[in-house]
Design a protein that fits this description.
The chain has 244 residues and is mainly beta. Helix content is 3%, strand content 42%.
C-alpha cells in the first residue's frame, strides 16, 4: 500500500520504471499512479497490480487509479505499458488523462471491458479532434468518464501511427516552415478526413519536425501529402511507417 497521497508520483528516470505486484487503495490517496509522457525506453510499465476503491471517492474529487499527467511532459513520447491490472469494482474508470494534449495522441486500451463502467472493450483517449474524426458515431462511441478527464471510446480498435518523411530541423525553436502536410481520408466514407501538421520533437537545443503522429481506428485509409503553400500533391523521397 502507498500512503503519500498520490500512491506513486512518476516523473521518469534514465530508464523505464516497472511497478508490479502492488496494491493501491483509495483510502491512502485519491490517485493511485501518476505518470508523465516519456519516450521509449524510459516510459513506465505498470503490470500485475490491483486497485481498490477507485470507483468511489468524493463527488467533487473522484478517485483515479491511473492518471496520465502533463508534469515534465516530453515532446518525444510513448504510451505507458499497462498489463494484467485488476480492480475491485466494474464501475471504475481506470485511466484519466490530465489534459487535452491537443497536439498529441494518447491511447490506452481496455482489452476486456474491466477498466470502465460500460463493461465494453475500447480505448481511453485524449479529447481532441483527430481521435474522433474517423469514428462512425463519435458522440455515441466516446464519452467522458466519472473523472471527466479524457474520453472512453467503446467497441473500437485504435492504433497510434507514426509516419516519417524527413525534413525539417531548426535550432532553439520549432521550424517555422515545413515541406508539406498530410491528409488522411477514410476510403469507406470520404467525408471523414483530417489534415495533419508535422509533429516537432525537441532534442536538446534542436527541434526536429520529420514525422506525423496520429491515431486511427481499424479501416482503410488514403494518405496524401500536400504542399503546405499551394495544396498540390507531393511525393516524399522516403516514407517510414511505425505502429506504436
Amino acid at each position: 500500500f502507498f500512503t503519500n497521497g498520490k500512491g506513486i508520483l512518476y516523473f521518469g528516470n534514465g530508464v523505464g520504471n516497472v511497478i508490479e505486484k502492488s496494491t493501491f487503495d483509495l483510502r491512502y490517496g485519491q490517485i493511485g499512479i501518476f505518470f508523465s509522457l516519456e519516450p521509449n525506453p524510459k516510459q513506465i510499465t505498470i503490470r500485475n497490480n490491483s486497485f481498490s476503491g477507485y470507483a468511489e471517492g468524493c463527488e467533487d474529487n473522484p478517485g483515479v487509479a491511473l492518471l496520465q499527467g502533463d508534469a515534465q511532459a516530453k515532446s518525444n513520447y510513448s504510451m505507458a505499458t499497462l498489463e494484467n491490472l485488476t480492480f475491485d469494482s466494474n464501475a471504475v474508470d481506470a485511466v484519466a488523462i490530465g489534459q487535452k494534449f491537443e497536439d498529441r495522441i494518447i491511447l490506452y486500451e481496455d482489452p476486456d471491458g474491466s477498466m470502465n463502467p460500460s463493461g465494453e472493450l475500447g480505448f481511453f483517449v485524449n479529447d481532441n479532434a483527430p481521435n474522433k474524426v474517423f469514428l462512425d458515431n463519435p458522440e455515441g462511441a466516446c464519452a467522458a468518464g466519472t473523472t471527466e478527464k479524457g474520453l472512453f471510446c467503446s467497441n473500437v480498435c485504435m492504433r497510434r501511427v507514426e509516419i516519417g518523411t524527413g525534413c525539417c530541423y531548426n535550432k532553439h525553436e520549432p521550424p517555422t516552415k515545413n515541406d508539406y502536410k498530410m491528409v488522411v481520408t477514410s476510403i469507406s466514407d470520404p467525408s471523414k478526413s483530417f489534415t495533419f501538421e508535422k509533429y516537432a520533437v525537441q532534442t536538446g537545443e534542436w527541434y526536429n519536425a520529420d514525422k506525423f503522429i496520429f491515431g486511427l481506428q481499424s479501416g482503410n485509409y488514403r494518405l496524401d501529402f500536400i504542399d503546405e503553400n499551394d495544396g498540390s500533391i507531393k511525393v516524399p523521397s522516403s516514407v517510414s511507417f511505425e505502429f506504436v
